[in-house]
Amino acid sequence: MAKFLDKISERAKKLNKTIALPESDDIRTLQAAAKILERGIANIVLVGDEADIKALAGDLDISGAKIVNPKTYEKKDEYIQAFYELRKHKGVTLESAAEIMSDYVYFAVMMAKLGEADGVVSGANHSSSDTLRPAVQIVKTAPGAALASAFFIIAVPDCEYGSNGTFLFADSGMVEMPSVEDVANIAVSSAKTFELLVQDVPKVAMLSYSTKGSAKSPLTAATIAATKRAQELAPDVAIDGELQVDAAIVPKVAASKAPGSPVAGKANVFIFPDLNCGNIAYKIAQRLAKAEAYGPITQGLAKPINDLSRGCSDEDIVGAVAITCVQAAAQKK
Ligand code: COA
């Protein structure tokens, strides 16, 4: 994983992207900002009060960061108006828009929407919902994406499966009870994301407790339907299901359970039927297989807005910022 993140950081350095960090009251954010600026990974906007940020930073060198205070920013009224226009059909008034725009996470996401930042990283001291709700309300989905979802890059040490032990797991962090159409869209987005971040050809396994009809139930039928739909949406991508995990990654098992499959035995993208499966699976890989888990990373948004775990380190924030830069550059193409 260190290798994966090193490569992503090197790619980010060439992109000159600007990432907004709204959690400027958290020392890990400031430590990360100092490292990002020193390494030249991204330009940084810290959202917050300048005096408070400088007091918390102490000796950290964050002089290269731009500091924007939502309360005094010269474009404050433009931001309030923009949020009001976006959400007035949901009962938002100018008064409530002003209050919402004083929230640092909402403000940072609006910076991305209005093109003053290329992406946002938040979640060190906010819940996933507090980071993701502003994202789905303000920047919304990217053209061609039916929904936003969240994935983890999982790098298993000394592992011959997947892409040299590297996998993408989705959805493992956002969409709780996806419909068949949602699962199909998550599969298609995940294939593109895998190609972008891991730079290998995606082989997408639609996972189940059954392989190719070995069991029959409404659950297996849903995965079969999602597989069919994903194949229709992305006919050029190797997508197959329904597959059990062993059939998906172990060539010998694949040969007996799913002969002729373009994916079985070589899968590197795992698509789960719901958030329970996706979240449980990544934590098992992380804790029992001692895999590095990077995420949750969002995909399918018009601008990359990425969530952090509340137990994250400053280096985790640096990594998330680098990934956000690479995602932002891909969206501009
Ligand atoms: N993709 C795109 N848009 C989405 C979306 C998705 N996955 N989920 C919700 N939306 C849209 C809704 O359609 C709605 O649009 P509108 O208000 O313009 O009509 C808007 O976002 C807000 O929806 P709302 O109902 O207020 O939010 P929600 O309760 O559906 O929550 C999340 C959306 C993202 C906040 C929710 O899915 C969530 O909390 N996910 C995180 C789960 C979690 O805790 N993960 C931690 C494990 S690591």
Automatic annotation (TrEMBL):
<comment type="similarity">
    <text>Belongs to the phosphate acetyltransferase and butyryltransferase family.</text>
</comment>
<dbReference type="InterPro" id="IPR042112">
    <property type="entry name" value="P_AcTrfase_dom2"/>
</dbReference>
<dbReference type="InterPro" id="IPR002505">
    <property type="entry name" value="PTA_PTB"/>
</dbReference>
<dbReference type="GO" id="GO:0008959">
    <property type="term" value="F:phosphate acetyltransferase activity"/>
</dbReference>
<feature type="domain" description="Phosphate acetyl/butaryl transferase">
    <location>
        <begin position="4"/>
        <end position="325"/>
    </location>
</feature>
<dbReference type="InterPro" id="IPR050500">
    <property type="entry name" value="Phos_Acetyltrans/Butyryltrans"/>
</dbReference>
<protein>
    <recommendedName>
        <fullName>Phosphate acetyltransferase</fullName>
        <ecNumber>2.3.1.8</ecNumber>
    </recommendedName>
</protein>
<keyword id="KW-0012">Acyltransferase</keyword>
<keyword id="KW-0808">Transferase</keyword>
<dbReference type="InterPro" id="IPR004614">
    <property type="entry name" value="P_AcTrfase"/>
</dbReference>
<dbReference type="InterPro" id="IPR012147">
    <property type="entry name" value="P_Ac_Bu_trans"/>
</dbReference>
<dbReference type="Pfam" id="PF01515">
    <property type="entry name" value="PTA_PTB"/>
</dbReference>
<dbReference type="InterPro" id="IPR042113">
    <property type="entry name" value="P_AcTrfase_dom1"/>
</dbReference>
<comment type="pathway">
    <text>Metabolic intermediate biosynthesis; acetyl-CoA biosynthesis; acetyl-CoA from acetate: step 2/2.</text>
</comment>
